Amino acid sequence: MPLTPEQQAEIDALRAQSRPTLRAVAEGMEAHLYTAYPVLDHGFVRVIDYMGDDAAITQAARVSYGRGTKAVSNDEGLIRYLMRHWHSTPFEMCELKLHVKLPVFVARQWIRHRTANVNEYSARYSILDREFYIPRPEDLAAQSTVNNQGRGEALSGEEAARVLEYLKGDAARTYDHYEEMIGQEGQQGLARELARMNLPANIYTQWYWKVDLHNLFHFLRLRADAHAQYEIRVYAEEICRLVKDWVPYAYGAFEDYRLGGATLSGKALDCLRRMLKGEEVTQETSGMSKGEWREFQGVVD
């Protein structure tokens, strides 16, 4: 189950409270507070707290740049200007704190974004739940033949069934041994901090993750991308939905310039200009490597 009864009771109690406040409030995010949105088979994302809104970004920008932004007549235009010209510090005025439940192997990818504050569930002090990520058959795929980090074609029905049986069986067996090691009647039991090392990377963990909007956008640009691993991408996509309701102007600019935009190298720009003039440009005449050329074609085709 995504939420324990204790967690659900805590959420229900918090949602039942209502207090007046003088701080900036984003109505879109208020609607999401304390709601756990399911991700994968046992995971979830829920908003614990947030600070700031679109107005906080423009307020900080106008303090910082003064007269330099007077030509921008509205907040949305200013935010788009800031995003377009990579002015990042105004976006740092907004912060978001999430409670995330996710498989350990996804957490190990996620933690590479070292610009957030993290507090993770401790398996030294507590016993992990018997919850493992088991992919859907359609999400099982072979290794990509063109990308060492990616997936290729989906596995066939028989092979997918065999792999799923391994995943389920291995997870159950290692957890049985974990339970047996940490204590039975008549034995001392292995320390939890040691017993946990035998658990597989698809077991679920939880953490609180707090990040400012600038670094959150960097995370989302990489992890909500179509090339990101599916299991972390679905978390990023759920967070995108929340952020869109929180700071709609900032998210709109991010979606346009980062998620939907492309960065071209000097060689790529030169090739594009030549192509616009009617010249036929090939990989051999582009000055790019095969990989660069393939990526360039993905942008312009």
Automatic annotation (TrEMBL):
DUMP binds at residues 109-112, 120-124, 196, 223. It comes from the Bacteria. Pathway: Pyrimidine metabolism; dTTP biosynthesis. SUPFAM superfamilies: Thymidylate synthase-complementing protein Thy1. Binds 4 FAD per tetramer. Each FAD binding site is formed by three monomers. One of its GO terms (molecular function) is flavin adenine dinucleotide binding. It catalyses: dUMP + (6R)-5,10-methylene-5,6,7,8-tetrahydrofolate + NADPH + H(+) = dTMP + (6S)-5,6,7,8-tetrahydrofolate + NADP(+). Belongs to the thymidylate synthase ThyX family. The gene is thyX. It is an enzyme of class 2 (transferase). Homotetramer. PANTHER family: FLAVIN-DEPENDENT THYMIDYLATE SYNTHASE. GO terms for biological process: dTMP biosynthetic process; dTTP biosynthetic process; methylation. FAD binds at residues 89, 112-114, 120, 212-214, 218. This is Flavin-dependent thymidylate synthase. Its EC number is 2.1.1.148. The active site is at residue 223. It comes from Silicimonas algicola. Catalyzes the reductive methylation of 2'-deoxyuridine-5'-monophosphate (dUMP) to 2'-deoxythymidine-5'-monophosphate (dTMP) while utilizing 5,10-methylenetetrahydrofolate (mTHF) as the methyl donor, and NADPH and FADH(2) as the reductant. Its cofactor is FAD. Keywords: FAD, Flavoprotein, Methyltransferase, NADP, Nucleotide biosynthesis, Transferase.
